[in-house]
Amino acid sequence: MYDQNNIFAKILRGDIACQKIAEDKHFLSFHDVHPKAPTHALVIPKGSYENAHDFTTHASEEEIVGFWKGVNTTVTTLNLTQDGYRLIANTGPHSRQEVPHFHVHILGGHDLGPKMVMS
Ligand code: AMP
């Protein structure tokens, strides 16, 4: 059951401010408040989806394409295409997902090392 009071739902409603990077009708991207790399952005869909599985199962094809184009727009805006970046989508308890609104982390700005963990 999607929690309408999660922090990203509040950001989408405008109840809480964010450091916005890009936005259109399908997505919003903003800087992570506790960055784990020189560049650490989050991309969220506008629809109410709890995690990657919920999003991919229930979102329309238009929403899914719009979201991933939003990831690409954000990567381009942050000038990460040349040196590269890492995408992470924590999903569910074993991933330790903290915020129950689907989001993709974009990490970059230096060599991220061989590990898949963020810290
Ligand atoms: P996850 O563990 O994948 O759910 O990650 C949630 C991320 O949201 C963490 O990296 C937090 O630092 C970040 N975060 C939490 N609250 C905010 C906020 N108000 N603005 C920006 N980032 C946030």
Explain what this protein looks like in three dimensions.
It is a single chain. By secondary structure, the chain is an alpha+beta fold. The protein has one domain: HIT-like (HIT family, subunit A). It has three helices and five strands, in the order H-E-E-E-H-H-E-E. The chain has a five-stranded antiparallel beta sheet with strand order 1-2-3-5-4, with helices on one face. Strand 2 and strand 3 form a beta hairpin. It is globular, with a radius of gyration of 14 Å. The termini are far apart. 24% of the residues are buried. The mean pLDDT is 96. The structure holds adenosine monophosphate. The site of adenosine monophosphate has 13 residues, from loops.
CATH architecture grouping = 2-Layer Sandwich
Q: Rg, please? A: 14 Å
Structural class per helix/strand content? alpha+beta
Question: What's the main sheet like?
Answer: 5 strands, antiparallel
Order of secondary-structure elements: HEEEHHEE
Which ligands, by name, code or SMILES, are bound?
Answer: adenosine monophosphate
CATH evolutionary superfamily: HIT-like
Record field, number of beta strands: 5
* Neighbour order of strands in the largest sheet: 1-2-3-5-4
Shape: globular
SS summary, helix count: 3
At the first level of CATH, what is the class? Alpha Beta
Distance between the termini: 29 Å
What is the averaged pLDDT score?
A: 96
- The CATH topology is what? HIT family, subunit A
Strand content range: 15-25%
**Structurally, how many domains make up the residues?**
1
- Poorly predicted ranges: none
